[in-house]
Amino acid sequence: MTATVSASISPAQVSHRVVPIDLPLATGTRSYDIVIGDKLLAETGKLIAGRLGQRRCLIITDSNVAPLYQKRLEAVLASAGHAVLPALVVAGGEGSKDFASLQKLLDQILASGVDRKTLILALGGGVVGDLAGVAASLAMRGLDFVQIPTTLLAQVDSSVGGKTGINTAAGKNTVGAFYQPRLVVGDVSLLDSLPHRELVAGYAEVVKYGLIKDAPFFGWCRTNGARLLNGDREAQIYAVGVSCEHKAKIVASDERETGERALLNLGHTFGHALETVTGYGQLLMHGEAVAIGTVMAFKLSARLGFCPHAEVYDVHDHLAEVGLPTAPPKFAYNIDQLITLMTQDKKAEGGKLTLILARGIGQAFVSRDVSAKEVRALWEDTLSA
Fold it and tell me: Which of these is catalytic: 82, 286, 316, 318?
C-alpha cells in the first residue's frame, strides 16, 4: 500500500494525483486507483479503458446531477469506444436511499440490457454512490462499478473504501454491503456546481482526517480551509488527495471495519442519531451532522479527561469559522430516542455504545466503555445550550 501523510506532500506537486488502494486477499491483492485532478470528467472514458478495457456502461445519476453532467459523460465514454446504455436517474436527496428506491433501481438495471461485463458508473454525491454501489453488488450477483463523485463529501469519503448502504427505520446505512469500486475519478472542477452549503458540509469530512491521526493536516486546514471553499484548485486537489491517502491506508489495513477503520466514524455516531431523528432532510445535512457530532465527541473526551479543553475550542472554532454548525438545530428532540439510536448504530456491540474519542487533535481512539449516563449528560447540556 502506498500512502503518504500530509507533512510530506508539497501542494505545488498535486496538479494530478493517483492514490492506489491495495486490498489484501488470501490469493494476493486486488487494487484500484483513485484519480484526483482538475477537469478529469473529460478523461474518464480513457481512464476506464486504460484500466478496465472498453466496456458496456450504464450511468446511474440523480435528478440534480443529470442536467449538469450526464450528456457530457455519455459523449466522453462513447468517444473512448465504450457502449453506453440509457442512463438511469433517481430522485435527488437522501430520500432515495431506501428499499423502495433500491428495488426500483434494480428492476431498471435488469431491464436495461446489462450483462455480466457491464460497468455501472455512479455519477453523483454520496446518495448516488451508496445506492448505485448496493445495486451493483446485488445485480447479477455483482457488477463492476466506478465512482465519479460530484460532491466534496463523496470525493474525500463515501466514494472511497467500498462501504455502500441504504437507510432504514433503524438508522442510517443499516443495510448495505462492503463492495469495492474498480476506479474512483475525483474531478474537483465538478465542485463548482455545488451549492455553497453542500460544499461546506463536505468539508467536515476533510477536517476529520486531520483530527483522527494527522495534526499537521488539521493545521493546514485552519490556514487553507477558506481557500478550498472559495474554489482554489490547488487547495482542493491537495485536501482531497491527503484525505484519500489516509482513507486508502486505513481501508487497506482494515477493509471491513474490525479495527482501525472505525476511527473514520469520528462524530458519526452522534451525527447519525441527529440525522435519523430529523428525517434526513434539509434541516440537517450529513456533513453538518458530522460537524456537530465531532464537537460533541471532543467535548466528551475533555469531560472524561482524555483531551485538553483548549483543543476542544480549536476544533469548535475552526468548524464555526468555515460556516459549519457546532450545535444541533432547533427540533423536538427526545434524548432517550437519540441514545437508543446510538446503541443501534452499526458500530455498537452487544447494545453497548462504541464511540470515537480523542486524546487530542490527531489522536483519535475507539472507546467501548463510556457510560450511558455520561452520554445522556452530554446530550442534556448540548440540547439546552
Answer: 286
| Among 55, 261, 316, 318, the one annotated catalytic | 261
Query: According to the model, what pLDDT value does residue 88 have?
Result: 98
Say whether 163 is catalytic.
yes
Average of per-residue pLDDT across 165-188: 92
Helix (H, G, I), strand (E, B) or coil at 283: coil
Amino acid letter for position 302: A
Is the separation of the CB atoms in 88 and 114 below 8 Å? Answer: no
Domains defined along the chain, listed by start = 6-193 (3.40.50.1970), 266-384 (1.20.1090.10)
| Dihedral class, residue 231 (left if φ above 0, else alpha if ψ from -120 to 50, else beta) | left
Phi then psi dihedrals of residue 166, to 5 deg: -125, 165
> What 3-state class would DSSP assign to 285?
coil
CA separation for the pair 89, 257 (Å, rounded): 31
**Among the listed residues 303, 297, 246, 242, the one whose alpha carbon sits nearest the alpha carbon of residue 268:** 297
Q: Choose, from 74, 94, 198, 205, the residue flagged as catalytic.
A: 205
Active site (annotated) includes residue 141: yes
Candidate list 257, 275, 288, 311, residue with the active-site label: 257
Tell me the pLDDT band of 14, cut-offs 50, 70 and 90: very low
How far, in Å, CA of 193 to CA of 215, rounded? 30
Q: At which residue does the C-alpha cell 476542544 appear?
A: 312
pTM of the model: 0.90
3-state secondary structure (DSSP) of residue 209: helix
